[in-house]
Amino acid sequence: METGRIAHPRSGATSGIGRAVARNLARQGAEVVLHGRDRARGEALVKEIAAEGGTARFVAADLTDAEDTLRLAAEAGPVDILVNNAGLFEFTPTALTDAASFDRHIAVNTRAPFLLAGALAPGMAERGHGSIVIVGSSAARLPAPVGAAYGASKAGAEVLTRYWATEFGPAGVRVNTVSPGPVVTEGSKAMLGENIGLMDGSNARGKAGTPEEIAEVVSFLAGPASSYVNGAVLFADGGERSALPS
């Protein structure tokens, strides 16, 4: 890896894609700064990473709160890689999505990455290198009958990718998004229940993704192997052909 320090803000970094990303990057030698809301689960993951020979510390913060998000950036300190993996999804019809729900989606999925990049990317630029990876969603390009607020918030994150690549690229900071299709996580299991098998039929591979597969893509975008990749949205979806939540 190019770096030893990674800020990894995510709502629930102790589960799903966030947990897989943290473990994978730690195995590659990165000192990982974990974010989440549940301190007990966060500290448990710190111990798990340490048992695997890695180094991590945990910072609790609420990404729906702008001040708390900026505190997270301050406590993370100077970083060389920023993984924005915040994930809030409430799949409801538009008429049943109130203003508070819409604002929560924007706050976690779009505003938090914006604030964290604004706080941490300038330091990367001063040092002449860095990588920002956003974990997006296929919902940004494959509409479904529900979840417009989620799709809009993830589409906004993709737009930020292109703007930041232009803004920070000349200073040596790359910005890319990985866009997963349906992935089997605790969240998708809770949402789909006994219908979880529907995800397998949503892509050309005939099998839903795993958090570990997405983590490998994040590591590629974060590291030197992708040095000529900037401002890109990389689809990690098995050839998705129908809209399902990821």
Outline the fold blueprint.
Blueprint: E1 5-8, H1 16-27, E2 31-36, H2 39-51, E3 55-60, H3 66-76, E4 81-84, H4 99-127, E5 130-135, H5 148-168, E6 173-180, H6 186-192, H7 211-222, E7 233-236
Parallel strand pairs: 1-2, 1-4, 2-3, 4-5, 5-6, 6-7
Helix pairs in contact: 1-7, 3-4, 4-5
CATH superfamily: NAD(P)-binding Rossmann-like Domain
**Contiguous helical run count:** 7
Q: Which class do the helix and strand fractions yield? A: alpha/beta
Return the domain count: 1
The largest beta-sheet arranges its strands as: 3-2-1-4-5-6-7
| Strand fraction | 15-25%
Named CATH topology: Rossmann fold
Number of strands: 7
What structural keywords apply?
Short-chain dehydrogenase; 246 residues; oxidoreductase; globular; 7 strands; NAD(P)-bd_dom_sf; alpha/beta; seven-stranded parallel β-sheet; SDR_fam; oxidoreductase activity; Rossmann fold
